[in-house]
Amino acid sequence: MSRYRELAAHTEKLIADGLLRPGERLPSVRSACRSHAVSPITVTQAYYLLESRGLIEARPKSGYFVRARLGQRLAEPAMSHPVGGSTQLQVSDFIFQILDSVRDPAVVPLGSSFPDPRLFPLDKLGRHLANAARRFDPLASLSDLPPGNEELRRQLALRYLALGADVSPQEIVITSGAMEGLNLCLQAVTRPGDLIAVESPTFYAGLQASERLGLKVIEIPSHPRAGVSLPALAEALRRHPVKACLFMLNFANPTGSRVADEHKRELLELLDRHEVPLIEDDVYGELHFGPQAPLCSKAADRRGLVMHVCSFAKSLAPGYRIGWVAAGRHARSIQRQKLSLSLATTVPVQIAIADYLRQGGHENHLRRLRNTLAAREAALVEAIERHFPPATRLARPEGGYFLWLELPPQVDTLRLHQQALAQGISIAPGPIFSAKREFGHYLRLNFGHPDTAAMTAATAVLGQLIEQQL
């Protein structure tokens, strides 16, 4: 465990044991450096992590204080235990039925998969798009065919470089959102009937894409905070002909889990030994609450086996449908797949995003977005502690905008989903995140919408509905 995480865990225990009480001031950075023989950056990172978890708060010109929290901190859910063996998928109709019911804008969107679009600089992006449309050269419709706009790919390569990853613009393929990227990656390395490994629980869109391509899946146990189980994955690779792994390593949907950097390296070494490609869905990776970004998997990719899929939909530009794949050794295949599937991604939008990135300011936007999401997470957790039964379990994420909750076993979240909709509230019931419709008493909640009062009131209603099932 890294030193700042050790310090954060130590401080968290002091808070949990009552030695540091709500409202009390934490040691200053200088004092903590002397006490623990660490650097100022280590203390700062530890305090940022504790702040992101809602345990402490910064007060201007006063330092850090233990945050007042209602109730006892809820326990974490345990490691998942999916039913063994591969699964022939039949999930799309079931998932669409759930998703179609939560599109009403009047519904409190705790079940949404998207953050509030008002969190993004859409006016600024709109001006870039208007400028791009005015100076659009029709010849660019040919020059910006896959792999995509050269300047956008250069800007993306620079962002990888800042994360310690040497990714050539030539291996980046621009896609129409991350979902097209995931489909292209699956098509590049599998054939109908092949078996892929996914986390349990996993994002339903990956299940839908796999079903559409005629693939089977094997679900790998995962921890709601630490992510996919490496021993379980090693056993699955030993026993089954896995053709690819489709994982979220950073702030996974639905759990919010993050695979620690050292375990991420071990995972990549394991896949390298078995010659199994990793398709990483990393759309939430930039939404880390702490000061340091997670390890970029491409920085540890020695043989081009990682297909890193990302987009701007969750961090900058929802609705613009700009995604990409840093495809490693599979770049040429994915480029051809893209040409045959959709020919190209809208060129003026590519130019607009490239202009925005080149002019700077994106990091400032991300910093504000992360701070907002961290504050919303703390507010939702506090509301859950106040209104949900004490047997509720949840894991505190270090980024993203989802909470994964385990309710008492007698609660049926599909039924809760229907009851909540009748009250104008959406939730995402656990069974949509499983090939076998497991997690019947789990649910995912979205804290990426800034109306805290509505979120808190909806949480109170959900707590009452849950109590009725007990």
Structural notes for this entry:
The structure is a single chain. This protein has 470 residues and is α/β, with parallel strands linked by helices. The protein has 3 domains: 3-66, Arc Repressor Mutant, subunit A, CATH 1.10.10.10; 87-118 and 365-469, Aspartate Aminotransferase, domain 1 (Alpha-Beta Complex), CATH 3.90.1150.10; 120-362, 3-Layer(aba) Sandwich (Aspartate Aminotransferase, domain 2), CATH 3.40.640.10. It is built from 16 helices and 15 strands. Strands 3, 4, 5, 6, 7, 8, 9, 10 and 11 form a 9-stranded mixed β-sheet that branches. Strand 1 and strand 2 (63-66) form a beta hairpin. Helix 2 packs across helix 3 (40-52) and helix 5 (122-134) crosses helix 13 (347-359). The longest helix is centred in the C-terminal third of the chain and has 26 residues, at 362-387. The radius of gyration is 22 Å and the shape is globular. Keywords: Aminotransferase, DNA-binding, Pyridoxal phosphate, Transcription, Transcription regulation, Transferase. One of its GO terms (molecular function) is transaminase activity.
Q: Please, what is the average pLDDT?
A: 90
> In CATH, what is the class of the largest domain?
Alpha Beta
| Tally of contiguous helical segments | 16
**What is the radius of gyration?**
22 Å
| Approximate strand percentage | 5-15%
Overall morphology: globular
Q: What does the main sheet amount to? A: 9 strands, mixed
Task: Indicate the CATH topology of the largest domain.
Answer: Aspartate Aminotransferase, domain 2
Annotated CATH architecture of the largest domain: 3-Layer(aba) Sandwich
Instruction: Note poorly predicted spans.
Output: none
The count of DSSP E runs of length 2 or more, i.e. the number of strands, is 15
What's the structural domain tally?
3
Structural class, by secondary structure, is alpha/beta
Domain HTH gntR-type: 1-69
Protein name: PLP-dependent aminotransferase family protein
Family: In the C-terminal section; belongs to the class-I pyridoxal-phosphate-dependent aminotransferase family.
GO molecular function: transaminase activity
